[in-house]
Amino acid sequence: MSPEFSDRTKKRIDKIVARYPRKEAAILPVLHLTQQEFGHISDEEEKLVAELLGIKPIEVREVVTFYTMLNQRPVGKYHIQICSNLSCSLLGAESLIDYLKEKLGIELGETTEDKKFTLSTVECLGACEQAPCMMINFDYYGHLDKKKIDEILDNLK
Amino acid sequence: MIKIFIDEKAIEVEKSTTILKAAEQAGIDIPHLCYHPAFPPEGTCRMCLVEIEGLPSLELACSTQVKDGMKVSTKSERVIEARKGVLEFLLAEHPPDCPICDKAGECSLQDYYEEYGQFENQFNEFKEKREKKVKIGKNLIRDMERCILCRRCVRFLKEVTKTQELGVFERGIHSEINILDGVLVDNNYSGNLAEICPVGAMTDSDFRFKTRTWFLKKGESICPLCSRGCSIFIEYHEGFSRFTLPKRVYRIRSRENHKVNGFWICDIGRYGYSYIDENRIDKIIVNNKEGGETITWEKMVILLAEKIKRLYYIKKTSRIALILNTWLSNEELFLINKIFRNDLSVENIYFTDPPEGEEDDLLLTSERSPNKRGAREIGLDLKPINLETLADKTDLLLIFGSFMFDQFNLAEIKSALDNIKMKIIFATHSNEMNSLVDIVLPMSLIAEKEGSLTNVDGIVQRFSPVLMAQGECQPEWKVLVNLAKELEINFRYYSQFSSPEAILDEMGKKISFFEKKSE
Q1: Residue A72 covered by a domain
Q2: Among the partner residues A43, A58, A66, nearest to B164 by beta-carbon distance
Q3: Does A104 lie in the same domain as A53?
Q4: Mutation target vs B (from A49, A58, A67; most B CBs, 10 A cutoff)
Q5: Residue B115 lies in a domain
Q6: Quick check: A65 and B165 CB within 8 A?
Q7: What percentage of chain B reaches a pLDDT higher than 70?
Q8: Distance between CA atoms of residues A23 and B164, nearest Å
Q9: What are the start-end ranges of the H helices in B26-107?
């Protein structure tokens, strides 16, 4: 079945689209709402957005593949995005990434079998003062080490 | 109009123009890769940086508008250094595989490197390995390593064909030009993509690895495959001294002409060139019971003139019939009209043309012959063939072209022609129809002769021979002039027609449509 927006999202989208002189200019906020509603943006959702904004699906794909925070595949209940950029790497992010992979038994970009965790890296969360850091869904966790990661994940039952 | 200075040369230009266009007008070449005159400036390749007096940074010539009194330098040390830097980054990922690249020899990046680059490699990193050979369109092969992301192809499909089969996916080093979910670029203008790609990222599988570009010579011509009459370049190979090649024409490319086709041509015109070399005839063939004899053109024309004269003197020219087509040039149709309709009062003049095809809203028209409009303007009635009346009323039949064959089957044509005493065909290609007639005369194609065509919008376009006529092939106009002179009905009049140009001049005097239309 092809996806459809809920009435609530539809109303929000209409409001956003009305702000711009051209419909397609609203693509980023609309994609955020789409992800909120469906959890990810696959080709089905791309087509939905394209139709809504009067553009071709390929133009939506261009935007979706450009931004790493737009998920093309379904993600787990908790999406762990760990920073792999300079400050975090200098403070041991690489070993933490390996630790997470081992602990969850998945590779980067994969989701655990129970659909609970998805692991991916991210280029700088803008929180170098807390390096090494990660973001789970929309919450930040800083000054990480293996012990702290264990605690955080244990609390996410 | 305002005055600007480029490399200390004063130039008067339109107010809203860009530096790059202004320089072009003044004959100054500013290197560019992503800019294409058909599209608005993109500014992604950074190749066109120039120095403007009074500005701290270098600016893009493709997107910076001129200002009154602006002083631009395109050859200063800073500019040359910047070009070197831009090239260094473009080549950071671009493979040096010119020896096996189809684009080599006509590649902008290669040319600019020769002129401005030539640097020591400063990168320690290996180049990224990307897909080298992916079919992404009907005749298109994409090499992602060579792509410099100028987006010309994406913009072409968005702005010209509006089909948008290509997009740029991912970002940074992973950016790639790709199709959506495996749907190939398949529109009637896809061949233009390989042509506008400034590097070898998009190559044409019709041309790929067939020859090297520097062996090709090119000549200006007009595409005869529909009544638009797009301006084209015919690119041909003259062969090598030690061995000959199986064909002459290797590709057709578009030629800029804003009155007719802009920058583009369609794929029907681009890929439909095999007829120029395949299956041609280059000798006069006489089909008689003994099985063929040789005859020269001079004797041939005398023989034909005598046949016509005999009918003329017994006032039986009504027994002559002609089958024409609109691949004939304006001049040829004019001569035929003059000789046969006016001088000899021949009434049975029919036309056969290739069957109509689908048209599109860009260039391709439904008429698949180049000169229907010309025939109408000359005053010829495009009457279709009626085989029965043709068979009953004819003693001498002159057939131009073999398009009859598209309309009737061989048996139908045979039974009609069998009733006619003398049948002569002016043919370019060999086919079964040639065995049904008495004499086959080898003719030159539009690519091999001179003349003019009137396109669907009434634009009269002249063309010159690009290729040498093969063997005994002759252009129709020459045969017709010789025939007219031999008929001796109006020798002096036809003697003035030493070239198609002279015929067109005469047409301008006689037919108001052709007055001052020739160009």
Answers
A1: no
A2: A58
A3: no
A4: A58
A5: no
A6: no
A7: 98
A8: 18
A9: 77-93
Tokens linked to B504: 């067109």
Cα B223 from Cα B252, distance rounded (Å): 9
**Residue B18 per-residue DSSP state:** B
Structure tokens at B440: 């086959």
Q: Are residues A141 and A88 in the same domain?
A: yes
Strand B2-6 with B71-73, pairing? parallel
- Compute the distance between CA of residue B498 and CA of residue B516 in angstroms, rounded to an integer: 20
Residue A53 is part of a domain; what is its CATH number? 1.10.10
The verdict on pTM exceeding 0.80 is yes
Q: State yes or no: pLDDT of A3 exceeds 80.
A: yes
Q: Yes or no: say if B45 and B148 are a contact pair by the CB < 8 Å rule.
A: yes
Please check whether residues A35 and A99 belong to one and the same domain.
no
Task: Look up residue B256 and give its DSSP letter.
Answer: -
Strand B134-137 and strand B71-73: the pairing is unpaired
pLDDT digit string, tens, across residues A100-133: 999 999 999 999 999 999 999 998 999 999 999 9
Mean pLDDT computed over every residue of chain A:
93
- DSSP assignments along B159-175, one per residue: HTS----EEEES-GGG-
Beta bridge partners of B166: B179
* Helical segments of A2-134, H only: 7-18, 27-38, 43-53, 57-66, 86-90, 93-104
Q: Are strands B2-6 and B231-237 parallel, antiparallel or unpaired?
A: unpaired
B182 inside 8 A of chain A by CB: no
Task: Say how far apart CA B65 and CA B46 lie, in whole Å.
Answer: 16
- Phi-psi region at A75: left, alpha or beta (left = phi > 0; alpha = psi -120 to 50): beta
Q: Do B166 and A62 touch (CB under 8 A)?
A: no
Paired tokens of B125 = 């990193």
Interface residues from chain A to B (CB-CB < 8 Å): 43, 56-59, 61-62, 65-66
H or E element in which residue B6 lies: strand B2-6
The string of pLDDT tens digits covering residues B318-349 is 999 999 999 999 999 999 999 999 999 999 99
Domain hosting A92: range is 78-154
Tell whether A73 is covered by a domain.
Answer: no
Contacts of B180 in chain A (CB under 8 A): 57-58, 61
Asked if B169's CB is within 8 angstroms of A61's CB, the reply is yes
Angle at B222 between CA B218 and CA B223, to 5 degrees: 105
Closest CA to B445 of B460, B425, B429: B429
Q: Can you tell me the ipTM of this complex?
A: 0.85
Q: Are residues B353 and B436 in the same domain?
A: yes
- Select the residue from A27, A41, A62, A72 to test the B interface by mutation, using most B Cβ atoms within 10 A: A62
Say how many C-beta atoms besides its own lie within 10 A of residue B332's C-beta: 28
**Do B297 and B435 share a domain, yes or no?**
yes
CATH number of the domain encompassing residue A109: 3.40.30.10
Taking chain A, what is the end-to-end CA distance rounded to the nearest angstrom? Answer: 31
Of B165, B169, B181, the CB nearest to A62: B169
| Unique residue bearing structure tokens 């129970």 | A114
